[in-house]
Design a protein that fits this description.
Blueprint: H1 2-16, H2 28-38, H3 43-56, H4 60-65, H5 68-75, H6 81-97, H7 104-108, H8 115-126, H9 135-144, H10 154-167, H11 173-186, H12 205-209, E1 225-236, E2 239-244, E3 256-257, E4 268-269, E5 274-280, E6 283-293, E7 302-304, H13 306-311, H14 316-324
Parallel strand pairs: 1-6
Antiparallel strand pairs: 1-2, 2-3, 2-7, 4-6, 5-6
Helix pairs in contact: 1-11, 2-3, 2-8, 5-6, 8-11, 9-10, 9-11
The structure holds iron/sulfur cluster.
Length: 329
């Protein structure tokens, strides 16, 4: 999955990314300035400041030597003046070191540079394999994994940092990082994510479960997700149609599942047989069980005879649905 995910994301980024000035350079100084300006400030607000700032201080040496009044005048309007002061402090460190550091730890050690900025500079300017994690990326990850963890908790941040590091394309870290952030900024929006246009919708668990508008969760208490599902009982000569989970579902790999209505758009649905509730950690499911008929066997599904059905590992949800449908196992 990971390789295909990276390719789909990279293809989309190549075709759709916004043309921004800091995307046309690999100069660590320019990338650093853009990343600091973009912290807590919108892209459209940053654009004029970025150009003017670099005209005024075109090199790290110029920034290090600037008078504080000039620096603050160039920053005026962007707010958060501590960012400008830290920039100059770090510029002086860089000049004292004889040039921009080229290793992650050295970049991270600069004044005012945190994990995010260090990973952004390391990956974009030096092509080092460090994944960035900002609010946009966290939102995308929470939805991809249908993860209801509180994104303001440091444990969640740590978990997500590991997750995005796993997903990172080590051959194209700059493109991967920028693509994840761009996806969050333009498609996987906080409200009304544009899932129909999303290049990674195939791998998005929240989209499959219909929970994307409930995620990410922000706040101390972990909330539970309310999810509705429609499971189909499709029968042919006593055999039941099922599909088997592969390595993309590590926790349930090898288990058999009943089809969901969304997987079989050509199925003819009958009257619901009933519903049941099922909970897994913070996911509360309301499951409707509906009989259906099909004219052709769809790809990826198999018919299981009663004897095989009894021996097959079934997910609890499939087992409950079959019991409700009167198929005692
Ligand atoms: S499918 Fe929708 S929710 Fe999932 S990552 Fe894409 S835009 Fe976000």
């Amino acid at each position: 999955m990971t390789e295909e995910f990276r390719e789909a994301l990279a293809r989309w980024y190549d075709q759709h990314h916004r043309d921004l000035p800091w995307r046309k350079t690999r100069d660590p100084y320019r990338i650093w300035i853009s990343e600091v300006m973009l912290q807590q400030t919108r892209v459209s607000a940053v654009l004029p400041y970025y150009q003017r700032f670099l005209e005024r201080f075109p090199t790290v040496e110029a920034l290090a030597a600037a008078a504080e009044a000039d620096l603050l005048a160039a920053w005026a309007g962007l707010g958060y003046y501590s960012r400008a002061r830290n920039l100059q402090r770090a510029a002086k460190q860089i000049v004292a070191q004889g040039g921009f550091p080229r290793h992650y730890d050295q970049i991270r050690a600069l004044s005012g540079v945190g994990d995010y900025t260090a990973a952004a500079i390391a990956s974009i300017a030096f092509h080092l394999p460090y994944a960035v994690l900002d609010g946009n990326v966290m939102r995308v990850l929470a939805r991809l994994d249908n993860d209801p963890s509180d994104i303001t908790a440091s444990a969640t941040r740590k978990k997500m940092q590991q997750r995005v590091q796993q997903l990172l394309d080590p051959d194209e870290p700059a493109k991967f990082n920028q693509a994840m952030m761009e996806l969050g900024a333009t498609i996987c929006l906080p409200k009304q994510p544009q899932c129909g246009q999303c290049p990674v919708q195939t791998w998005c668990e929240a989209r499959h479960q219909g929970t994307q508008n409930q995620l990410p969760v922000k706040g101390r208490k972990q909330r539970s997700l309310q999810i509705e599902r429609v499971l189909l009982i499709v029968e042919r000569k006593g055999a039941i149609l099922l599909w088997r989970r592969g390595p993309e579902s590590p926790k349930l790999q090898g288990f058999w599942e009943l089809p969901e209505a969304g997987q079989l758009p050509s199925a003819k649905l009958g009257k619901p047989l009933g519903e049941f509730r099922h909970s897994i950690v913070n996911h509360n499911y309301r499951v409707f069980v509906v009989p259906a008929t099909l004219t052709k066997t769809p790809a990826g599904f198999q018919w299981l005879e009663p004897s095989r059905l009894r021996r097959a590992p079934l997910s609890t949800m499939a087992r409950k649905a079959l019991a409700l449908a009167g198929r005692a196992l």
